[in-house]
């Protein structure tokens, strides 16, 4: 006698698409127009990624990647993709360190663009730009950047500078660490100021090379201010564009 088996429900036609096409759809669906805020992970090391937006007159948050609540297969295929497709924000270097220490290496490989806001008020100890340059600030952070060359980490310090002063300090640090300003200094500053920045960067670089042999990683960068500061009202469009580019790239 024939035995009737319970029929399996037909698989959703979406999962019959080629993996490459599904990946393109996921990238489109999970890429947000604003950066995601990463909070502390749960017991498994999975982070909570929050989309920040305004609802009426108040700040509101909702969790990113709602696709993972649709079905088990979507959860499996998309659960960490938001890390790859979006800029991720952390408040405080220690929060990023704690996330790295509690997460698995495969999860860390998903990161692409990370911004860490060094909010001194929220830290147990205060880090300085000098400590970052010396590589004594965070071995955990330095190790992450060494292992994950596709990830770019920019630390923005919660300092305040007078108008124009931030760019002078920034360019000195940039020339010290990257040596890539070249004639770009003259496009922003007058000749005398540009020469002073070059001389200061050369002196600082010599001191660093004598004391610290570890290389300056290309994917670990700093910005001496958290927000894009005011710029001189006398700058032209080219100067403003260059200042904005430097701020976004970091030193």
Describe the structure.
InterPro entries: AN11006-like (IPR038883). This protein has 251 residues and is of the alpha/beta class. It folds into 2 domains: 143 residues, no CATH class; 72 residues, no CATH class. The chain is 40% helix and 16% strand. A 7-stranded mixed sheet has the order 3-2-1-4-5-6-7. The longest helix has 21 residues. The protein is elongated, with a radius of gyration of 23 Å. The chain starts with 18 loop residues before the first helix and ends with a helix.
- The mean pLDDT is 79
Task: Specify Rg, calculated over alpha carbons.
Answer: 23 Å
Strand content: 15-25%
- Please tell me what the overall shape is: elongated
For the biggest β-sheet, the strand order reads 3-2-1-4-5-6-7
Element string (H = helix, E = strand) = HEEEHHEHHEHHEHHEH
> So how many helices?
10
Query: Which blocks of ≥5 consecutive residues have pLDDT under 50?
Result: none
Helix content: 40-55%
Structural class: alpha/beta
What is the domain tally? 2
Q: Can you count the beta strands? A: 7
Sheet having the most strands: 7 strands, mixed
Q: Termini, distance in Å?
A: 77 Å
Keywords:
2 domains
Write the layout of secondary structure elements.
Elements: H1 19-30, E1 36-39, E2 48-55, E3 58-63, H2 72-78, H3 81-85, E4 87-91, H4 93-102, H5 105-108, E5 113-118, H6 129-134, H7 139-147, E6 152-157, H8 165-178, H9 191-211, E7 220-223, H10 237-249
Parallel strand pairs: 1-4, 4-5, 5-6, 6-7
Antiparallel strand pairs: 1-2, 2-3
